[in-house]
Amino acid sequence: MTTPVGETTCRVCRGPLGEFLDLGRQPLSDRFLTEREIPGEFFYRLAVGACASCGMVQLMEEVPRELMFREDYPYHSSGSSVMREHFARTAHGFLESAYAGPDPFVVEIGSNDGVMLGAVRDAGVRHLGFEPSGKVAEVARRRGVRVRTDFFEEPTAAEVRAAEGPADVIYAANTICHIPYLESIFRGVDALLAPGGRFVFEDPYWGDIVEKTSFDQIYDEHFYFFTASSVRAAAERFGFELVDVERLSVHGGELRYTIARRGAATPAAAVAETVERERARGLTAPDTLRRFAADVERVRDDLTALLRRLREEGRRVVAYGATAKSATVTNFCGLDAGLVEWVCDTTPQKQGLLTPGAHLPVVPPERFSPASSDGGYPDYALLFAWNHAEEIMAKEQEFRDAGGRWILYVPDVRVV
């Protein structure tokens, strides 16, 4: 069991924050590196706490944003067909909504490679993305998406309002949970959002993380782990109101939160229903958090025991998907090249580099094939990109047909 090490202060309400899980010394999750860069690699302590006052689950230590969302940030949102379809539906939903207005203006915080705003652009609708990572922002520009290479906060939002008028929709996907300075985000929304507009964001749901023991959702870029209860409390604190919630299946389970100015809309029944379910489940109750920590340690022990046994049997094990969240797994579980030979990934920017902290080689998909220079398919593949399991397993059916087996660790360790 992880022993709590005392309390500090909640970043949202300044209430007492109690630590319940320590995942140890961790690197920047998306900082893939060369051997020459290993001596200067950045590490921090990855620990999680819950606020006793507002229930917000959050990291105990903040990693400077400039280290994470730098010029060469390697993640591209459009890399998955499932996510491309998800963002297309999202864009069309915004454009068909009653609050879009006659001349809608859609703003996205953390617009990445422009996959969502591309659909808005195709509809001929005014739009703007905020994306601080220069190279990925340039990918969006090449697609014809308008992007501001900057962080979204009160001063930058006010500049956009002065130049282009109010936004009918401010949207963010897997971005708001990255931002410790939540008050500045809401101040920015206040500066830019139209009176009848909506602030909509979707992020990994703490309820799903607890239910699935998906501890790899905890890494440097995910500072907050939201619930409807904690988001409602934060919105009210900053002068807004949570008016709707929606369950999403993407990224291992998320909630989409719709926020309006106070009094601008009647909250949907889903808000109170979700808050009541969270209360009944005790999602941030001490007993729940202690059980979660114990479950995390059990998964770690089961996974390392399985991999050591396979090594002793002379089996070849590789990994699939050099995801940001895999850094938590490899470093917390101590997975080195003696247990996992390499990780295959489709992202060219990651290939030929080493994974953060654990320093596993990242190889192109050609290595995961019957014609591989390693002598064909491996015996087992540890699926780091488990949230895309259905899509990946269908794509790699030949691996299964050749006798290969997948190793999964969410919600528990198993071979399929």
Automatic annotation (TrEMBL):
Residues 250-411 form the C-methyltransferase domain. Pfam families: Methyltransf_13, Methyltransf_14, Methyltransf_23. This is Class I SAM-dependent methyltransferase. InterPro entries: Methyltransf_Zn-bd_dom_put, Methyltransf_Zn-bd_dom_put_sf, MeTrfase_14, SAM-dependent_MTases_sf. Residues 10-69 form the Methyltransferase putative zinc binding domain. The keyword Transferase applies. Coiled coil: none annotated. One of its GO terms (biological process) is methylation. Keywords: Methyltransferase, Transferase. One of its GO terms (molecular function) is methyltransferase activity. The keyword Methyltransferase applies.
